[in-house]
Design goal:
Blueprint (H helix, E strand, L loop, with lengths): L1 E3 L2 E3 L1 H16 L9 E5 L4 H12 L3 E4 L6 H10 L4 E4 L1 H14 L2 E3 L1 H4 L15 E6 L9 E5 H15 L16 H8 L1
Helix pairs in contact: 1-2, 3-4
């Protein structure tokens, strides 16, 4: 499914990893009920785990630009009403003070992922899935929400139109805080 440096992960292993992450996010809950969870990390297996784990647990994923300044991140996190932020390594260190100031729980993938999987919620296509921020060329960036049915339709249309299969490979050079990188390439 993915290759990251020397690390290769199969579709089955990635799916299990996403379920384990979703289970950890849920903890004792049955459904995140569209809780807004941001993540601040570069393209990686952890990025995919986080995005799909949030979706599978019933949350709204809020991917952030890893090149954002602190003032921009503060705007995104505040306006999206984010409750938790997932970041690893140096990215985690760069947002520690901001999360403390905004009373946002800061976690890493390793803090969340569990060894066990639990029953995950059924997600209606109409439920909200992701919030991406506009570029802010005319004013402050605004959060744009996509629903599961929209994301599914976009992916299904692309797979059909371009006749993609599991054997195809696509290098990912696009930013993962824009719809094109997330949907057209990664998903």
């Amino acid at each position: 499914a993915l290759v990251e440096g020397n690390r290769v992960i199969s579709y089955a292993a990635l799916s299990l990893r996403c379920d384990r992450f979703a289970s950890g996010l849920l903890n004792t809950r049955d459904d995140l009920e569209e809780e807004r969870i941001a993540f601040f990390m570069p393209a990686s297996i952890d990025y995919v785990t986080t995005l799909h784990g949030i979706w599978r647990a019933g949350g709204i994923a809020v991917p952030l630009n890893v090149a954002s300044a602190v003032a921009e991140l503060e705007h995104y996190l505040s306006s999206a009403s984010v409750t938790r932020l997932i970041a690893n390594g140096e990215y985690r260190e760069s947002v520690t003070a901001l999360c403390a100031a905004l009373n946002i729980e800061l976690l890493s993938v390793d803090d969340i992922i569990t060894d066990e999987t639990k029953s995950l919620p059924e997600l209606a296509p109409e439920r909200r899935a992701m919030m991406l921020f506009t570029s802010g060329t005319t004013n402050k960036p605004k959060g744009v929400v996509s629903r599961h049915k929209t994301i599914s339709a976009q992916i299904t249309t692309l797979v059909s139109a371009w006749a993609w299969s599991e054997e195809d490979t696509i290098p990912l050079f696009l930013p993962l805080h824009h719809i094109h990188g997330i949907i057209n390439i990664l998903s």
